[in-house]
Amino acid sequence: MTRMVPAADLFGFHTDFRVPVFDESDEHVPEVDPAYQFDKSVTMALLAGFTRNRRVLIQGLHGTGKSSHIEQVAARLNWPCVRVNLDGQLTRMDLIGRDVVTLRDGKQVTQFQEGILPWAIQRPVALTLDEYDAGRPDVMFVIQRILEHGGKLTLLDQNRVITPHPWFRMFATANTVGLGNLNGMYHGAQRLNHAQIDRWNIVASLDHLPPDVECTIVSARAPDLDGSVISAMVAVANLTRNGFRVGDLSTLMSPRTVITWAENVDIFDDVGLAFALSFVNKCDDAERPIVAEYFQRCFDRELDQPSTHVA
Question: What is the pTM of this model?
Answer without folding.
Answer: 0.79
